[in-house]
Amino acid sequence: MLYLVIIKNNNMNKETAVEWFVKELFKKIDYIQVDPKLIEQAIAMEKEQIMEAAERWKGTDFAEQYYNETYGGDK
Fold this sequence. Notes:
The chain is mainly α. It has helices spanning 17-28, 36-58, 60-71. The protein has a domain at 32-75. The longest helix is centred in the middle third of the chain and has 23 residues, at 36-58. The model is unreliable at 1-7 (pLDDT under 50).
């Protein structure tokens, strides 16, 4: 079974590294079986890492705002 994963990247928002990797992977491989939950988990883990870094830099409120403005909110 082939899973097609489409990653939303609204307007001028940046892609995260995981989003870029998944997009490039699907461009280069004709057939790949991937559980979408694994990709969602990787994106969630990366979001947490980005937010933790922003928290250490500016604080909790800033971290959520930074992620949402930079990467397009809840992913």
